[in-house]
Amino acid sequence: MPRPHRVPRPHIVSRACEYCSQKSGAYIAPLLGLLTLLLTLAVPPATAHAAPEIWLPTPPGETWKIIQGYGCGTHNGWDRYSLDLVNSAGRTRGAPVRAAADGTIWSWTRKSGTLILDHGGGFYTMYTHMESAVTTQRGKFISRGAVIGAVGDRGAHGTPHLHFTAFVGQGADASPRNSIPLSFAEGVELPDVGGCNQHGGKTLTAGGQAAAPEIAFSGGQPGHWYAGDIRVDFSGAAGGFSQAWDRDPGGDAPQFKDAGAGYVQLAWAGEGLHTLFVRAWDAHGRQTTATYGPIGLDFTPPAAPARIAPIEVAAGKPAALSWSAASDNGSGVAGYRIYVGADANGVSEWFSPAAQVEAPTLTPGHYLLRVQPLDYAGNAGAWTTIGEIISK
Q1: Structural domains counted in the chain
Q2: Which of 265, 297, 329 is the last residue of a domain?
Q3: Strand partners, 104
């Protein structure tokens, strides 16, 4: 079960007592009473938040050292319970940074190389000084152990390192923010013990479980729209899996136990743009969540453009033709096939991606302007006569 993380205060109280011991007994009680009141007002209830299990964000199997711990240097504000980490025996700059828990991207600040993940329930993890991020798409799901970026020195005054913080916050802007003492699934406990640079010099080794299992997908193409049903297969879940369109299926146990592979049909999700979520368990019960998509299903052709007023053009000269755009409630209008001629049922392969075209020179006479709208899924609407052209 996830262990509740509390926002402790003993370091403040102990300092208050040291200060009080230097004063006469007459001042001790009033000062302690005032401090207790201030702490009660300033610090949110510690029991209001429970953090998910988090793993070290450094590469599995590597040993990293804390060069700056709690309550010292730059760790002196709301992010008091932060760690600055460097590789003990290998490269620090460019080393991969991994998500400490399943979550979604909440924000990215390029100047400081800060990526924040939202893990739900008002709990966040923050990764700072990264030289790059794999993706900064807000709301994108990131599974535990997935590489989210690379260590750098943005805003770190020339010293490459990873600054890591876990914090709680309320509301859309996660305010106010309060960092919390850290505890990692590898068995690492870093409580607040008081003093400056707490746990500085301590080495930490990330567990190899942080990136397993790996899920492979096949079938379809992310970012593509389809006019008909397709099948998406996945494999790599030796201990079983759960699956769902457009949401994390969650759960403490797989829906399909001991099944190493599975599949879904796009039609199960219906028309629209969708993302497949697969939560997978390996043979040892470790789990992760992978996503595939977005991928779209659109089998409804676009509607015909509105009819336009007759167009008069000068015979023997090119003419610019335009019309109102067609509508499509799925993948969107990709363009139009166009016919200009006298045949009331005329068709052609002449194509324009926009609702306009330059017509060829026409001899005097009456012509029909007919169009067929196409969408990005490959659906073709009906050929429709939308106007007349009078060349004279």
Answers
A1: 3
A2: 297
A3: 118, 141
- In the structure encoding, which two tokens stand for residue 359, read together? 């017509």
pLDDT tens for each residue of 28-60: 444 444 444 344 334 443 333 456 789 999 988
The CA-CA-CA angle for residues 211, 213, 219, to 5°, reads: 115
What are residue 125's DSSP bridge partners?
117, 166
CA 29 to chain centre: 51
Q: Is residue 41 part of a domain?
A: yes
Q: What is the pTM of this model?
A: 0.50
CA–CA gap between residue 120 and residue 214 (Å, rounded): 23
Do 217 and 177 reside in the same domain of the chain?
no
**Is residue 206 exposed (0-12), middle (13-18) or buried (19+ Cβ within 10 Å)?**
buried
Bridge partners (DSSP) listed for residue 265: 231
Instruction: Give the CA distances from residue 19 to residues 32, 35, 43, 302, in Å, rounded to whole numbers and listed in that order.
Output: 10, 12, 21, 76
Same domain, residue pair 224 and 206: no
Instruction: Render pLDDT for 220-261 as a digit per residue (tens, 0 to 9).
Output: 899 999 999 999 999 988 788 999 999 988 777 888 988 889
Q: What is the distance between the alpha carbons of residues 82 and 66, in angstroms, rounded to a whole number?
A: 10
